[in-house]
Amino acid sequence: MFLKIINFAGSLCFLLYGMKLMSDGIQKSAGQRLQTALSKMTGNRFAGLFTGCGLTMIIQSSGATTVMLVAFVNAGLIALENAVGVIFGANIGTTITAWIVALIGFNYKMELFAIPIFGLGYLVTRFKKIKKEGLGIAIMGFGILFLGLGWLSDTFKTDGKPLPELVAFIAAIEDFGSFSIVLAVFVGLIFTALIHSSSAMTAIVITISAVEPSFWNIGAAMVIGSTMGSTIDSIMAAWDGKPNAKRTALIHVMFNCSASVIALIFFGPFLHLIEWLIPGEITADNVTYHVALLNTAFKVIATAIFIPFVNQIAQLTRLIIKDVPELEADSYKLVFNTEMGAKSPEACVFRAQAEIGKFSENVVQMFDELQSGLTAFDKSFIKVRHPHIQQLEDYCDQMQEQLTAYLIKCQHLHLSDEAKDNVQLMLRLVGEMESMSDGCLSISIQIKKALEKNVQFKQEDFDRLIPYFELGRQLLYFIHKNVSKIQRLTPEEFEFASQLEEQIDKERNELKRIARHRLEAGADVRAELYYMDIIRQIEKIGDRCFDAAGDLR
Question: How far apart are CA 313 and CA 316, in angstroms?
């Protein structure tokens, strides 16, 4: 018996590892396209439903989808109401694994081909020229999955018959009478939470049912329980998140638990419905279809019940989880979520991209404050605008430090080549934007000093300086627009940035020439030096913007 337990544990590990390789390989092969689709194709409840369903079918993991979703909601990329439909869809999409196991795993003895399939996948990963490493990993995972499934089936039988201990286990649960269903649900819930995969739990139920069809009732209850246990991933992903991230996890818990409770209330009629849809006596040949259909049917029915109430569900979570006061503007915190890194590494990169967008937005805000302050040029700048610019610059320093540490951790994740390139790009952009924020603070300090010392600039100085500022603002806004999306520049866009930077350089040289002539003519030395330093700092910000454009090219 001890050997059977060890074999069961080993086979289960193969099954889980195969499923993880499939999910990771597909995510790596698709790069960030799947995440982009998730962030963009959630405009309404039905778009979210089909997006969540389709994405989960592709990556074979509702856990990865919900973890991604929590990350996007946490970063503000997806509205809470739109997330509800994605959660519904992910629950339906995850049932595809059960259908693959039911339709292929026991009809074609896929374990016989598992080793050649694994070998094929390995060869694909070794051919670097075709750049399909992710696809190769997914194929290897497919082979390992069915190898584990075959071994798992063998642990439940001996000499072609059900293992006596298995028959005794089923009888022991059934001895609890009506409470046996509740016990089975609890077993399914706990076991799924431990292995972090409702798909694997369903595969185990299908495997046992194929060996011993009398397991059908108990197995059905375990599948229902596994739906509740599968919420563990979203809970862990949202643990340190913002209120909306926690609300997303709560929606996942509420929907899965409600769906399970409804299925349990109508458990008898529900099983009769499945048996009516697949007529005939339940046998080893068709029980696998019963389990797979049950897994899909109760999630589809629950979705049909709750989809009209998307807005109300979102509002209910807002009543349960209250908003908390935002952190002070001088405090920045970016926590690396290890659960997200394990389940959906590309989502970590998307989280960083959202933060990069906020970084560039802060730099733009600093520059706008400078331009407004220079246009007015009065003592209110010292009391209002300069302290705000100092606060933003300190915030940018914190962002640089924590974003850099976050991105370095991202480098160690299992990422696609595209995502790895984006991580390297963001590391460079963080440095460029921090330099821009330093430049803005330097200009602010010069303006503050000039005002404190009652330095007088002529109107013609402002008439020349404001258009020069505007050139810098145009280039900064252009970079901000593309940095926010980590959007690569086309040759035409890079040429546009290049022309703006050349205009800034040309205007700088002209302004410095005029200032020198005024100095030679006996102008106020202090005023001219402040003026020239502001001109120089704007030009340096333009240089950093152009460097960022070069990184984005």
Answer: 5
160 conformational bin, left if phi > 0, alpha if psi -120 to 50, beta if neither: left
Q: Residue 157 belongs to what H/E stretch? A: strand 157-158
3-state secondary structure of 403: helix
Of 30, 5, 1, which Cα lies nearest the Cα of 416?
30
Token code pair at residue 431? 């440095």
Residue 79 DSSP one-character state: -
* Residue 513: strand pairing partners: none
DSSP state of 76: T
- Identify the sign of the CA torsion 182, 184, 190, 195: negative
Scanning 31-95, the segments in alpha helix (DSSP H) are 33-40, 45-59, 62-74, 80-93
| d(C-alpha 101, C-alpha 94), whole Å | 12
In this structure, how many other beta carbons lie within 10 angstroms of the beta carbon of residue 53?
Answer: 26
Dist CA 295 CA 103 (whole Å): 14
State how far the Cα of 541 lies from the Cα of 439, in Å rounded to an integer: 6
pLDDT band at 214 (very low <50, low <70, confident <90, very high): confident
Q: Which pairs count as long-range contacts for 455-464, CB under 8 Å and 24+ apart, including other chains?
A: 455/524, 455/526, 455/527, 455/530, 456/524, 456/527, 457/377, 457/527, 457/531, 461/531, 462/374, 462/375, 462/377, 464/511, 464/514
**Sign of the C-alpha dihedral, residues 300, 190, 109, 144?**
positive
pLDDT in tens, 355-381: 898 899 999 999 999 888 888 888 888
Q: Measure Cα distances from 387 to 327, 370, 373 in Å.
A: 18, 12, 12
Q: What letter does residue 231 receive in the DSSP assignment?
A: T
Claim: this prediction has a pTM higher than 0.90: no
DSSP character for 321?
Answer: S
What is the per-residue pLDDT across 97-117, written as a single tens digit (0 to 9) for each?
Answer: 888 888 876 655 666 778 888
pLDDT, one tens digit per residue, over 465-517 is 888 888 888 998 988 888 877 778 888 988 998 998 899 888 888 888 887 87
| CA-based end-to-end distance of the chain | 63
The strand pairing partners of 31, in sequence order, are none
Compute the half-sphere exposure of residue 35: CA atoms within 13 Å on the CB side of its CA: 29
Residues with Cβ within 8 Å of residue 305, at least 6 apart in sequence: 262
Q: Do residues 153 and 163 lie in contact, with contact meaning Cβ atoms separated by under 8 Å?
A: no
Following CA atoms 534, 538, 543, 549 in sequence, which dihedral angle do they give, to the nearest 10 degrees? 170
**Distance (Å, whole) CA 523 – CA 174:** 99
Residue with tokens 């109430």: 309
